[in-house]
Amino acid sequence: MWSARDALDMAVLAVVYLVAARLGLRLSLVERNITPLWPPTGIALVAFLRYGRRLWPGVAVGAFLVNLPISSVTVAAVTAVGNTAAPMLASWLLDRVGFRHTIDRVRDVAALVGLAALASMTVSATIGSLALLASSAIEADTFWAAWSVWWAGDAMGILVVAPFLLAIVTWHDVAPRLGWRNLPEAIVLFATLVIASVLSVTGAGPILFVLPPLVGWVAWRFQLRGAAPAVLVASAIVTWAAVHATGWFQDLSLFTSMLTLQLFNATIAFTAFFLSALVSERMRSREALEHAADELEERVQRRTAELRRSERELAEAQDVARIGRWEWDLTTDVVIWSAQMYRIHGFQPDAFPVTFDRSIEQVSDVDRRRIDRAVAEALAERRETLPELEYRIVRPDGDERILVGSGRMSFADDGTPTRMVGVVQDITERREFDRQHMIAETLQHALLPHDLPSIHGFALASRYIPAESGFRAGGDWYDVIPVAEGRTALVIGDVAGHGLAAASVMGQLRMAVRAYALEGGSPEQVVGRSDDLLHSVAPDDLATMLYAEIEDDGRHATMVSAGHPPPLIVGHDGARYLELTPAPPLGMSEHWTYVPQEVPLDPESTIVLYTDGLIDRRGVPIDEGMRRLLEAARTGHLDPPERLVQRLADVLEPSEVSDDVALIAMQALPVDAKAFSMRVLAEPRELASVRRALTRWLRTAGIPPDDADDLVLAAGEACSNAIKHAYGPADGSVQIRGTIRDGSVEIVVRDFGRWRPSRGQLGGRGLAIIEGVTSEVTIDRDGGGTTVIMRKPVRGSVTA
Amino acid sequence: MNELAKLVFDGDADVVVVSITGEVDLSNAAEVTAAIVAAAPNEVAGVVVDLSGLSYLDSAGIRMLAELARRLDWRQQTLRVVAPEDSRARKVLTISGTEPVLLLDPTVEAARARVTGDA
Fold it and tell me: Is the pLDDT of residue A690 over 70?
């Protein structure tokens, strides 16, 4: 309930109350316990306001001890109850209305006067007077007189003492701070006040009225911190004079004296505190105003700085963008050029005054006529805008620049043109860039394979995604090369850098790789020779490359990586990155020995090669890029290559495409060991793929290589014959079927055309060869075409 | 020339040696023929065509060799064909019955010696 600290506080409070009460009783007018100014009430109120009403026992004990020597125990106790309850009620009411201890608002003064002084003190006056009456200390006819003196005394205690104490306890909470420089003024004012107070009560006339202005002055200068002590001093002196009936009070009756005193005290308290609160309020609003003005000033300054900055930034932007600004006053023919305008024309800023003629002096003749015509038309038709014109100028040093200009015209009220303003941009470099970019893009487009070759038994798909909607053509490329003897090379590469240079290096590299591969070089030889080539043709360039040679059975690959991101292997069981031994990119380390790696492949798995643009994206860490790609590959692990490639390309958000991306996927299709079927265009270039596909099937079926070679030769002859003889200039097709039955392989080649007898039939050398390598040949010819059936028994045939 | 076959030319003032690797079929035989004819100047005594590295040869290739022999013959130049016994080309030449009409040698060295010797 109460802490030790509270007990100590209560004890101190009781003592202070007691001392103040003893002083107050010296001023008693009626009996010995009713005084016109009762300071303990003010003390009790401030104690409750500042330190809490729980300290009430201190006040109660103090009040009881004060009254004990001058009345009975009962009266003392009852009086103490009243003296405690009144300030309790006052502090409670003040807290309820949000009373500010600094008394710096008029409503605080009103609350203090109305609620605390006038209303609450009726409690102590009533209880105390009744106690006196009950104990016969006063008679019934003097009850109201006693009551009113008690009430007025307590009210004055509140009005005079409480503000003084509050001014002390809130001294440092109030602005402005008072310093030593205020001291002389304070001393002078207080000295004057004391002297005036003493004179006013000791003088012969009723000159109490000079005191309120003085107190008001103090209040005006120092607000509560001046008003409260001033009121206390003036009231104390005047009250002392009234109690001792000296000076002006000496001939007055008790009642008049009392009335005068209370009116005086009330007047100066009101005057002082209202004035002080008013001044405080005024000062606060002035401060708020000043603060707002300061803020406004600061905002204006900030805005001005921002404007200057954006002006500077605009000038800088114009510099960077090579935009010059001009303004032509039509009435004076004065042209104003911006600094950049002079620079565009090859001069120092403000090198000379400009006129319209001077401003187009450097323009080539043809372009000058166009400008003249455009300006004349705009003037004649009073057009608001000048058309955008592209023109060439020659700078003093002979440098030719391409400029593009546009402008706007202003008119006077009567419609006469007065002024033209416009901008001119130097687009020489941009034009050159556009031109190079166009070449690079064309080159890139020309260099990538238009159509992927069709390789029987494999499905292929690829994508090329240029960076930022084709802004830069890059050095990314891929290729599919059917290399000799049933193998296919899949290659992807990335030349560092962009633009024309990268694209042309890419073109050379791609062609070289193709040539090396077709020459029969092993993967490590192809990559090694490409490395040598790059060192010789573009010593400063670097390129990554991944070369994978895949056996036609789709079960085995040989790979060499030169600093390229790892391939993805996508199969029935999901997707994974293939870890290849790291080796430097091409062009990095001369005579590096690239080492091939043998990679077994699961049936029907897909190899995906890609360039780093797919995983190294803007704003995405490379690990995260690889993780996302792998996730997409896992999601689509059952997709055919075309859909898989699309799915992987979709991993890229358009905003993340900071580099070109090339992507190629190849899947080994399942081989049916029992039967072979293929249909190709009747064209010589298809022969190689027929041989390749047939070889793959025969190998898968376990046919010995020698027998397989013979069967391929026989089928090749039959197909060649169909191509030569079956069709006219229009396209036709040839169908090849193969079956294995009773220890023999049967190959059927069928065309759907009409034989041209004059050009011969299957015969001569071709037939001789077929007959030489097979055991049985049948040729059926009917209206729908020709069918050649070839049969050959094979050793150790595995399929029934 | 398409990419099925690759030709490597060698030789000296007397003889041109052409090594054909890869495959020769209907699709590239004419081109290969033209390339070899173009590479053999009038001064040389003969041409050696090395088929030992060839992985596929069929009747189109045989026709090529016959054509080549005929055109060189116009210029009194010799065509010698290198096709070792165990090679794929030799088998096709044998089966097709061309073996007797062509001048065959087991190695390039032997073929060159015969050309310069004949000259």
Answer: yes
Token output for A259? 């009335």
Could you tell me the residue range of the domain that residue B95 belongs to? 5-105
For residue B96, which residues of chain A lie inside 8 Å, CB to CB? 765, 768-769, 772
CATH of the domain at B53: 3.30.750.24
Digit-coded pLDDT (tens) for B17-70: 999 988 899 999 999 999 998 888 888 899 999 999 898 999 999 988 988 998
* A374, A512: one domain: no
Put residue A322 in one of left, alpha, beta given phi > 0 → left and psi -120 to 50 → alpha: left
CA A502 – CA A494 distance, rounded (Å): 9
How many distinct structural domains can be found in chain B?
1
| Bridge partner residues of A747 (DSSP) | A738, A790
A689 and A633 within one domain: no
A556 and A600: one domain?
yes
Q: In the predicted model, what is the mean pLDDT of residues A667-672? A: 82
Is there a single domain that holds both residue A232 and residue A87? no
Mean pLDDT (chain A) is: 84
With an 8 Å Cβ cutoff, are A520 and B27 in contact?
no
Q: List, for residues A408-465, the tens digit of each pLDDT value.
A: 888 888 888 889 898 888 888 888 777 777 776 677 677 777 778 878 788 899 988 8
Cβ contact A269:A224 at 8 Å: no
**pLDDT exceeds 50 at position A799:** no
In the predicted model, is pLDDT for residue A610 greater than 60?
yes
- Tell me which residue of A617, A619, A499, A612 sits closest to A565, measured CA to CA: A612
Model confidence at B111: pLDDT above 50: yes
Does residue A721 contact residue A762 with C-beta atoms inside 8 Å?
A: yes
Residue A715 has pLDDT above 80, yes or no: yes
What is the b/e burial string over A53-83, where b = at least 16 CB atoms within 10 angstroms of the residue's CB? Answer: bebbbbbbbbbbbbbeeebeeebbbbbbbbb
Selected residues 520-539 of chain A with any CB under 8 Å from a CB in chain B: 520
Q: Which long-range contacts (CB under 8 A, 24 or more apart) does A18-21 make?
A: A18/A62, A18/A65, A18/A66, A20/A161, A21/A62, A21/A63, A21/A66
Instruction: List residues bridging with A780 in a β-sheet.
Output: A787
**Does the residue B58 lie in any domain?**
yes
Flag if B26 and A684 touch (Cβ within 8 Å): yes
Q: How far apart are CA A746 and CA A775, in angstroms?
A: 10
| Type of residue at A660 | D
| Closest Cβ–Cβ partner in B56, B59, B60 for A691 | B56
Domain presence at residue B33: yes
Containing domain of residue A711, as a range?
675-793
* Residue A80 belongs to some domain of the structure: yes
Domain count, chain A: 5
Indicate whether A165 and A187 sit together in one domain: no
Q: Which of A485, A685, A773 is the closest to B27 by Cβ?
A: A685
Pairing of strands A543-551, A556-562: antiparallel
